[in-house]
Write a structure and sequence with these properties.
The complex is a heterodimer of chains A (64) and B (410). A two-stranded antiparallel sheet of chain A has the order 1-4. In chain A, strands 2-3 form a two-stranded antiparallel ribbon. Chain A has 64 residues and is of the alpha+beta class. Helices cover 22% and strands 22% of the residues of chain A. Chain B has 410 residues and is an alpha+beta fold. Chain B has one domain: Orthogonal Bundle (Cytochrome p450). Chain B has 19 helices and 14 strands. In chain B, the strands form five sheets. In chain B, strands 1-2-10-7-3 form a five-stranded mixed beta sheet. In chain B, helix 8 packs across helix 11, helix 11 packs antiparallel against helix 15 and helix 15 runs parallel beside helix 19. The longest helix of chain B has 32 residues. Classes of the chains: A alpha+beta (64), B alpha+beta (410).
């Protein structure tokens, strides 16, 4: 599983960073960035889906 | 249209709504539900023409459409704002692209999560100080006011500390906020006069910071550069006014509404007391259902919006709380489910104007609830719902809320 954040859509609500800090970080402006190359270990896949489902701007996508 | 006509009680919410009618905020959920089913974009002649979309789809569409809708005016009033687009009177909230992002980028860093998290101990101490002050009344079995003496005091103290303003001026800040957000019935000349007092106060504070620079948000704003030069006093002052106005009523309302819910739903209260780890999830649900902020836009040019003939300079209310209750987007939208895991709510807005202070607001709201229910694990509304006074205008929340504490600790 691979996660992506669309920097154009992200407005810095920080839901992903709060729900899955192992997968998402925030920059100095409070906008989300994926940690590392965005690959999700199997034990964190549910957290990745939760982050996606809570993003108000639909900025997160998952590819498998 | 005269003011007397403006403020006659509303009879038909679909054709003559008025968000300043005291019945509006008290009955908002029912009004939005009714409109969503029968007239998803309502129109009223009041305030020179005002539109009210109530579905998630329409609220979202308008929030993203900065071509047809300008943020030059974000508080519906009888007169149009004096300052032109794209900067507006209180950048960046009143700004449009392309200027908007430049002004916003200046304010984003001090409100980013990692700059806000360190405020936690101070906010917790502040909450406990307010709770301590209530203990005499609680010990005597008297009601406390969880809106006026708790919820209201938290954000005003936090923002005054961040700005480096004198804490003794707390009552003055509260008066300024009231004038801007709830004094919408005032005639334009009265509004301008009241706003001038706020401006003069802020300018005096800026001058004090020039004379005595210190490590706070005001000094930060005076030091940053935009397009290669320092900000004008008007820009610094406008941004400070924005932070004062936007940071106080809103968080106060969110804390108050959340406590109102817990006072009325003892099973939810007991569950959070038993399992405080659920509080952050519950906070998101409170933000969804009781989102305090309805923003506004002005129509930038005549256009047709899903069959509605919108005319330039008409107001458009942007009720994010109504969007959050849309059953097409949220299953069981009208139910408060405190462990709702998937919660794509828009309490802090959508698009480029996402609430700048959302990280601070969440922190204050979470701590305020944690500390209140740890101190008072059981409480209810003292008296009846008629004893709760709700705000008037675009920010929705209880302004007076008598609470009877049933069980207290320490």
């Amino acid at each position: 599983m691979q996660i992506h954040v669309d920097a154009e859509k992200c407005q810095g609500h920080n839901r992903c960073y709060a729900l899955a800090p192992e997968l998402f970080d925030v920059d100095d402006y409070g906008n989300a960035v994926v940690i590392g190359d965005g690959s999700v270990p199997p034990e964190l896949e549910d957290r990745a889906r939760l982050a996606l489902a809570n993003c108000p701007e639909f900025a997160i996508t998952i590819s498998e | 249209m005269t003011s007397t006509e403006d403020f006659t009680p509303v009879v038909d919410w679909a054709t003559d709504f008025d968000h300043a009618d005291p019945q509006y905020n008290r009955n908002a959920h029912a009004i939005w539900a009714e409109l969503r089913g029968t007239c998803p974009v309502a129109h009223s002649e009041r305030y020179g023409g005002t539109w009210l979309p109530t579905t998630h789809e329409y609220v979202r569409e308008i929030a993203y459409d900065t071509e047809n809708f300008t943020s030059r005016g974000v508080v519906v009033e009888k007169s149009l704002p004096l300052e032109p687009a794209p900067i507006g009177g209180a950048p960046p909230i009143t700004s449009d692209p392309p200027f908007h992002i430049e002004a916003r980028k200046l304010l984003l860093p001090p409100f980013a999560p990692k700059k806000i998290e360190p405020w936690e101990p101070e906010i917790r101490k502040l909450c406990n100080g307010l709770l301590d002050a209530m203990m005499d009344n609680v010990a005597q079995g008297k009601p406390i006011d969880a809106a006026a003496d708790y919820a209201k005091r938290i954000p005003v103290n936090v923002i005054a500390r961040m700005l480096g303003f004198p804490l003794k001026d707390e009552e003055l800040f509260l008066e300024f906020v009231h004038n801007v957000l709830e004094g919408i019935d005032d005639e334009p000349e009265i509004r301008i006069e009241k706003f001038e007092r706020l401006t003069q106060y802020v300018i005096a504070q800026i001058e004090d910071h020039y004379a005595n620079p210190r490590d706070d948000l005001t000094s930060y704003l005076m030091s940053v550069e935009l397009f290669g030069s320092k900000l004008s006093v008007e820009h610094v002052g406008g941004s400070i006014i924005l932070l004062l106005i936007a940071g106080i009523d809103t968080t106060w309302s969110a804390i108050g509404s959340s406590l109102w819910h817990l006072a009325n739903n003892p099973e939810d209260l007991a569950r959070l007391v038993a399992d405080p780890s659920l509080i952050p999830t519950a906070v998101e649900e409170f933000l969804r259902v009781y989102a305090p902020v309805t923003m506004a836009r002005l129509v930038a040019k005549d256009h047709d919006f899903h069959g509605c003939p919108m005319k330039v300079d008409e107001w458009v209310l942007l009720p994010f709380p109504a969007a959050n209750l849309d059953p097409l987007v949220f299953p069981d939208a009208d139910k408060v489910i405190i462990d709702r895991a998937e919660n794509r709510h828009s309490a802090f807005g959508l698009g480029i104007h996402r609430c700048l202070g959302s990280n601070l607001a969440r922190l204050e709201l979470t701590i305020a609830i944690q500390e209140f229910i740890a101190r008072f694990p059981s409480f209810e509304i003292a008296g009846t719902e008629d004893d709760v006074v709700w705000s008037v205008g675009q920010i929705r929340g209880p302004r007076e809320m008598p609470i009877q504490v049933i069980d207290s600790r320490i």
